[in-house]
Design goal:
The radius of gyration is 24 Å and the shape is globular. The N terminus and C terminus are likely disordered. The protein is 18% helix and 33% strand. The termini are far apart. The strands form five sheets. Strands 7, 8, 9, 11, 12, 13, 15 and 16 form an eight-stranded antiparallel sheet that branches. It has a six-stranded mixed sheet with strand order 2-3-1-4-5-6, with helices on both faces. The relative contact order is 0.11. It is of the alpha+beta class and 442 residues long.
């Protein structure tokens, strides 16, 4: 067992799995948990009983992650399954995401906070459209590390040439998307080859096992040195006899570091002041950093409410009502030019209108289809949005937290689109927007 002291010295890796239906994602996760001894005895016994009731000789390790009744009945993953486990070298938070094209939106959710994405490919089928879609989403979300796991090598007689051809095709495609690091590993999740233990059937492969790579990949998610950002979630005013004048601004630091005495600016108002104090868990501290939840006290009384952003005065983002972004459309209903939506950025939600959809990405050859007029479910493209109020937005390349947003249907609260501000691999040539303001007063 890993002790608490040992865990405190290890790093944390957030990673997500993706791939087409029946590529073996849940089996890989189950094998990883089983062979790394991260499964409790009662969990394994429950899986063995469920497998035996189906007439299976051995335990179906996919059942360790597919917990919904519909998932077990259909043998597919529908919802994102989060698992937490640890080895002596590292702690992990795993998001096992669905492979079916209908649930691509869940892959966006699972990979949005990941430092590494695992994309599975069935060795018999090679790179398919869903493989390209998942690679595009990983690039769009700027996931720094991508692992291509070529699964079911046992079904192609562990042939090196099969693995090499798939790895070459995927690497060329993902590199064109701008994925910074790609590692290819041949595995058999069902048999356990190269998952935790090296495979005796693939002596031609000299790289790390899947777990060895997860334990050794560099993790550089320290946001303490990024642009400091605090989206205000709540204003604390107890107005008690003990704290008659206390006014604090609570939230989770999205990035960077705040210190007592720092000059700060509140956006979008632009009012400037200084940090008078910082409370963490009810106790005063001199310094706070991401991802701590804190309460900032300021020297001046300023009108601040939920949705405002507190930033260093010397490092404040520009505020704008015109946002251009790359998006992944996740709703069943199309997103169209002229669509009236709500835009949620950080803790602020404002009215907005889709002014233009300059392009849609074609996954086969990465070409841009100009002015498609709409985006349908699972489409990736560029949009121009005008908001009713100015928003302080960063480029997604600079900050995944304050450079992202979602578009919401105002009628029923459905999430329509996930957006990343600024340039990306899908950035089109500048498109002249001939449509003028059509009656909206913002």
């Amino acid at each position: 067992m890993t002790t608490t002291a040992e865990l405190s010295a290890t790093t944390l890796l957030r990673f997500a799995t993706a791939g087409s239906v029946d590529d073996g994602k849940s089996t890989l996760v189950g094998r990883l948990l089983h062979d790394s001894k991260s499964v409790l005895t009662d969990q394994l016994e429950a899986v063995e009983r469920a497998s035996a009731s189906r007439g299976q000789e051995g335990p179906d390790l996919a059942l360790l992650t597919d917990g919904l009744r519909a998932e077990r009945e259909q043998g597919i993953t529908i919802d994102v399954a989060y698992r937490y486990f640890a080895t002596a070298k590292r702690r992990f938070i795993l998001a096992d995401t669905p492979g079916h094209v209908q649930y691509t939106r869940n892959m966006v959710t699972g990979a949005s906070t990941a430092e590494l994405t695992v994309i599975l490919v069935d060795a018999r089928n090679g790179v398919v459209e869903q493989t390209r879609r998942h690679a595009a989403i990983a690039a769009l979300l700027r996931v720094p590390h991508v692992v291509l796991a070529v699964n079911k090598m046992d079904l192609v007689a562990y042939e090196e040439k099969v693995f090499a051809a798939i790895a070459e095709e995927f690497t060329a495609y993902a590199s064109e998307l701008g994925v910074p690091e790609i590692t290819s590993i041949p595995i058999s999740a069902l048999a356990g080859d190269n998952v935790v233990e090296p495979s005796a059937n693939m002596d031609w492969y000299g790289g790390p096992t899947f777990l060895e790579h997860l334990e050794s990949v560099p993790v550089s998610h320290d946001l303490a040195h990024c642009h400091a950002r605090l989206p205000v979630q709540y204003v604390i005013r107890p107005q008690t006899a003990e704290h008659p004048d206390y006014r604090g601004y609570a939230g989770q630091i999205a990035a960077g570091t705040f210190r007592v005495g720092d000059p700060v600016t509140v956006l979008p108002s632009g009012r400037a002041t200084r940090v008078a104090g910082i409370d963490v868990l009810g106790k005063p501290v001199d310094v706070a950093y991401t991802p701590q939840s804190v309460t900032l006290l300021l020297e001046d009384d300023i009108d601040i409410s939920r949705g405002d952003l507190i930033v260093p005065s010397k490092d404040a983002p520009a505020t704008t009502q015109d946002i251009e972004a790359t998006v992944c459309h996740v709703a069943d209903q199309p997103l169209t030019v002229g669509h009236r939506v709500l835009l949620k950025h950080g803790t602020r939600t404002v009215k907005a209108i889709v002014k233009d959809i300059p392009s849609r990405l074609t996954l086969d050859d990465l070409s841009l289809h100009p002015h498609p007029g709409q985006l349908v479910a699972n489409d990736i493209g560029r949009v121009k949005v005008r908001t009713a109020e100015a928003l302080p937005v960063d480029s997604y390349a600079d900050s995944r937290r304050t450079g992202s947003f979602i578009l919401i249907d105002p009628s029923d609260g459905t999430t329509l689109t996930a957006g990343m501000v600024g340039e990306s691999f899908a950035s089109p040539e500048p498109v002249k927007d001939d449509s003028e303001d059509d009656g909206w007063d913002f």
